[in-house]
Every structure is written in structure tokens, then in C-alpha cells.
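Re: [help] complex structure
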Amino acid sequence: MLQGALAGLAIGGVYAVIAVCLTITAQLVRVVNFAQAAIGMIGAFFAVSMVGTGLAQPIAIVLGIVVGCLVSAAIGWVITTWLADATTSARSAVTVAALLLLISLSFIAFGTRPQSFRPLLPGPAFTIGGVVVTQVTVAMVILAVVVAIAAKLVLSKTRLGTKLRAIADRPVTAEMIGIPVRALSISVWLATGLIASVAIIVIAPTQSADATSLSLLVIPASAAALLGRFARLDLALIGGLGLGMIQGAAAQFAELNVLRDWIPLVLIVAFLLWNQRKEAWDVAR
Amino acid sequence: MSRASRRTIPRLWLRSGIAVIGLAVGGVIAAVLPGYLLYIATTAIVASIALIGLGVVTGTAGMIALCQLSFAAIGAWVVSWLNLIHAPGGYIVWLLLGCVASAASGLLLGIPALRLRGINLAVITLGFAAALDLTLVKLQFPGADQGTKIQRPWPFDDDRGFFLFAVIALVVAAVVVSIVQAGRWGSAWRSVAFSERGTATAGASVRFAKLSAFAVSAAISGLAGGLLAGQVGMAFPTSFAALQSLALYLLSIVVGAHLIEMAIFGGILWVLIPEIFKRFGISQDWGLVLFGVLGIQAITSKTSPGQLLRNAIARRRPTPECTSSLTDAPPQPPDTAGTPAVGAALLEVSALSVTYGELKALDHVGFTIHENEIVGLIGPNGAGKSTLVDAISGFVPLQSGDVRLQGRSLRRSAPHVRARAGLRRTYQQDRVPPTLTVGAFTKFVGGGASTPHEIDEILDFFGCPDAGTPLASVDVGRRRIVEVAAQLSAKPNILLLDEPAAGLSHEEHEGLALRLVQVPARFGASVLLIEHDLNLVRSVCTSLLVLDFGTLLASGPQEQVLSRPEVKKAYMGETEML
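Output below.
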């Protein structure tokens, strides 16, 4: 059980990283980005195909991350250009289209079979009470914690953070006082594209690395982000790590084979029911 | 003939005529098309049915649902299972049971999504699609491992017959959805897509509207799934993959699937696009790419070819003659005895307090409105006037106090229950769904309290546009007057009006005043009127309430209240003259 939970911590780290990205975009650019994991998937697959052409692995990885950033920025550009004052729903619907687009493009460019990755971080890091903890696990947890803390610090302590919160809350006012709203919005997309690409590149060698399952990592991640109501970074982090551990522990039991896939949905439903136990009327609608 | 009922009878004939033509065209296609084309035509029909279902949720009710093919999978699963155990009744009964099972799962999934606005429903439905996808791959459909074929019903047991069967199913689904769309449920779906508060104020439950849209959509999808299983003879998980649901969702937006002919067009595209790519030896995944690109285009341009077509037809049609206007002299009151006497206490508000965190928006406000009374509510901006109306109509939780209508406490009642009890209101913002016509909106808000003839009279009285006019072509100021007329057609005990004259010209202000005075005599309703235009307040209201910083500064007969110095100071400021 403990072995399973610790093994699940690696994937939990990915959930947490993606959940933090989802929270950032939901807060700063009013989008629940359904293509968040797919963006990372495209970056990772591009890196693999570059390695296939004989490029050195570090360079290929950097290129992959760049591609992830560009794809993310392109989606952000479409949304900030044409849906500047649209509702969160309409803006997020674009990312649903982007999710389908990225998965099908990856089928065309890289084939439908799972990609074979050369592990970036091979082998165990250390052993705790007879349970092996891999390097990937350590890296993922550190990445998740660092990203969450860094995002929190940037948003609450820096001048850039103040500007970002300004464009999120009052884009028109922010624009009037001379904050470059579009440029900042797109840089938010660039940043989340970067983070997601790094996370997927690190975790992909340990997963069933086909385009659809990597892209749908966004579902457990949104369960984690929902724990923090798409607003609290700390809860998104805890939710992601916790969900990974629960799924890892459940993987130990063969009889939970089918039920295991439903854990994210059950948690999503539970969080939503809890969050919205009191009826509230949206002022705007 | 009355204005509202003129259109309904031909529409019935139109619907039956199109249904008969649809069946005939289906029969001809079944007779002439060669085998392979007939098979993919059946797939197009099945996809059209799924899109009709999706159109209800995404197009009409404005929600994001990403699991349409998962509901289809449930329909297919039920049909496969009942076929495997040789359940009595045969394919058609199994198909209907599949619809019931899909609708039930739609309800179950919809309940957590009830209070959700937009995006959370998308998260839940995508999660459901992915989970069911994985489960189906692991468990497979019943009878798949033995290769059990699904028994089709006689006389539809060959491919030609089954195509005809699918066409009949499509026609039935289309007729049912078109009737429901045109009725009260359909109006509630359109209304909830535009404004939840507006829906509740019409006396319709927001929960019911969302759940019914979701369940109807799931049931129709279940039908599509059962048909697909019957067409192939066996159900396979790949037909119902999460990715396919995403593509279908986007297609429904691209074509505008809430319009039935567009859903059928979408069904044709669903098979045609991959088929064309296949003919040219291009990977069929490009079809999904195309759906993605078209989807982004449709979302960003906020329209669909179907809607554009409808709008073009609507423009060619002559706009209905507007027979009356708010600036005309209003008809004489029905009773020459003048305004009826003020009656018993109707609405009692006692010690009502509302707080937002530390801020006291309303502090121990209490007053009574009697039958046949028109009371004005004035006060400077930010005094809490709209909050008071929100609190009375149930949209803001009360910290303390009570609201009683005819002696009955409404404190714990939901907004739509209050509306049904006869407490109606209008809004300062535009909450009139532009997707409805004036007549459909009035019918929906009135909830069957008025006959079509009475509705026509009310619309005429307030100088509203003809019942057939789409609200989208009515300017915002006049939409608010349509809202007032529609709420009065519900025959309320009391109507709370939140600045109804905003956006009207000076002449229209006067016309509105002349009509509001007649409301108690003509419609038997008391009125609470929030208004900044003191001339309007003076000419309409018999007594006044003055709010300032959340407390009731003064109340009583109009002249007395307006002459009090503290009212002058709070409301007018020192410099402005009364």
C-alpha cells in the first residue's frame, strides 16, 4: 500500500503541476485550459522525434519545450485576440477544440502508437523503509512544489504579479493605465506551456505514452485544481499529490482495476458538491 | 384571430408535412442507394440523431457537454445486453430501454452539475467520457467476446430496411425535439442559457431546466447508440471514444445543431469529411483536425452557418407592423370608477437585514405594501434599492428579517417559488433572452396564467412589438417594457420594477407613467417602483419609501415624504432643487 502510494507520487506530481497551471490560467486569463496536458504532450513528442533524427537529447528537449511554449502562446493569442470580452465558458471552449486538434495532429505527425522515450532520470533516488523512491518521483514533487511556490511569490510579491492580477480582474482598466494586457496574457500562456512541457517530458518515459492518455492527464489535474476551486495554488498542489497517491495505492489491488479509472471523476463530483453546497446566484447572470 | 395564436396552427401542419417529406426522401434513398453508400448513410442518420440531442444541451441550453457518445455507449450497452439475455420485447423495446438508461445516467451526472455554471459541467462530462472509455475497453460490450449479433426487428432486418428504420427514428426524434423546443421546456432552456436569474423570475426552476435539457439530450444519444449497435450488429468501444465525443461537440457548435436541419447537415458532414479524406488517400485524422479548426472558427466568430441562414431568411421576411407604441395615448381604464381602493396588507417586509461581509447593505428595513397600491422606492445610488428587490425576490440570503406575501412567509422559498406565489420582478440589466420571440417570451414568463388573447391585449397596452418579433431585434429599452408586460401576464399579486424606464425617451417615460397608474385597476397587481425620474415617481406613486445607506429614511404618502428636509438632503443633495 505504502509502496503504491509512493509510486503514485510521481504521477501525482504531474497532476499537481498541471493543476497549478490550470489554476494560473483560470485566475489570470479566465480560461480553464483543457489542452494544458496536450500542449506538454506535443512538446514531449517533438523532443522524441528530434532524438530520432539523431539530435543530442538535451538539445531535443529544449526544442520540445520551445514547441510546447509556442503552441500554448498560439492558443492564447487566438483567445486574447478574438474572445477578449467573452465569458470563461466561451474562452475555455476554444481549448476543447485545441485539445482535439493537438491530439489528432500528433496522430498525423507522430503516429498513434505510444512513443518510446529514453528515460531522462533513470533509476531509484533513495529507499525509505524498504520502499524505493525513484528519481522521477523526487523530481516531479520538487517541480510541483517549486512551481506552486514560485507562482505564489511572483503573484503576491512582485510588481509583475500586481500587473498580472490587474489584467485578470479589470482588463479594460489595466489597458487604460498602460499595462500591456495582450503581451502579458500571452506570456502567461508561454509560462504555463513551458511548465506543462517540462512536466510531461519528465514523466512520459514512466507512463503509457500515447497522445490521448497523456493529454487526458488534464482530467485528474482538473480534479486537483477543483479542490482549490481554480483559485488556491496550495490546495491544487496538495490535491494533485494526494490524488496520485490514492490512485497509486488503488493500483495495488487487482480487483480495483476498473474502479481505479473512476477515482478522478468521483473526486471531481465530490469537490463540486462540497464547494457548491450553498446555492449562490451569480450577479452577472 | 389573435396575434399569438396565429402562428401555432400552421406550424403544426408544417412540422407534419416536413416529417412526411423526410420519410418519403428516406424511402427513395433506401430504394436507390447502393449497399456501401447506404451503410454510411445509416451512419450519417445515427450521427444526426446524436447531434440533435447534443444541440439541446450545447445550442439551446448553452452548456458544454463533452460526453455525448458516452451516453450513446450506455444505450448501445443496454441493447447489447438485452440482446444477449434474449430479453422479451425485441429490438425496439430494447432501444427504448436504452434511452431510459441513458436519460437516467444523464440525470445522475447532471445533479452535481446543477449549480454549475458552464465550465464545471465541461470538466465533469470530460471526466465521465474518459472514465467510461477506459472501462469499456477493459470490459467490452456484452456478447462481444462470443460475437453475438444483435437481432434486428422484422421488416427492418436487412441493411436497406434498417436504413429506413433509422430514418423513422430520426424523424420521430426530430419531431419530438422540435415540439419540446417550441414549448415551455424549450423556452426555459433558452432562458437559462442567457440568464439564470431571469429564468427563476419567470417561475421556472433553473435546476429543472438544466436537468431536463441534460436528460433529453442523453436519451436521444442513447437512441443513437442503440441504433449504431443495431447497424453494425455489435458495439465496439472505439465508436464511443472520448475523442469522438469532443469532435461531435465541436461539430455541433460548427453547424449550430440546435436547429434540426443543421443537425442533419452535421450528421452528413460527420461521415462525408472522413470519407472524402479516405478517397484521396489522406489520413482520416485530418478530419478531426478540420473539426478542431472549424470549431475554433465557430467559437471565435460566435455564430454558425445555420443561424446565419435563419437570420438571412428572417431579414427577407417583412417585419411585422407595429400597431401600437408607448407614446400613444393609453386606452381608458376598464372601470370608469377610477383606481380601486387600497386594500389589505399584501407584502410585509419586516426587520430585513443583508450583509456582505462587514458591510451592511440593508439594516432592519421594514414596510408594508397593500393591495392596489403603487409604492415608489427612491434613494441615492448605492442606497441598497436593488439589493432590497434582490432580497425580497430571494436572490440574496437574508441575515435577519422576513418577507411575507399575503401572510405567508417566503423567507425559505427559492426565487422561482416566490415568482409562482405571485411575487414578480423585472431587472435593471437586460435579462430578456434574445433567442426568443416577444410572444414566446411572454408565454414563458406568463406560465399559462393568461390566454393568448389576454397576452395580445397586454402587449398592445404597453405598446410592445408584435408577438412574432424576435427579441434580438428589439432595442434594450423596449425589451425592458416587454419584460414588464410579460411579468404582468403572469397575473402577479405584486410586481417589483427596477428602473423600468431606463433607456426610454422622455415621451416614452410619460407614456409608461400613464400605463403604470392603471396597473392595479387593469391587472389587479400592486407595484413597487424603483425609479430615479422623480416626475415619473410623482405621477405614478401614491406613497414612497426612501432608502439611504441601507436604512429606511422615510416612508409615507408621497408629498409628505418628498417635503421632509432629510429626504431632500439625502436624495437631492443640497444644491439640486425639487
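Chain B has two domains: 38-311, 345-422+492-572.
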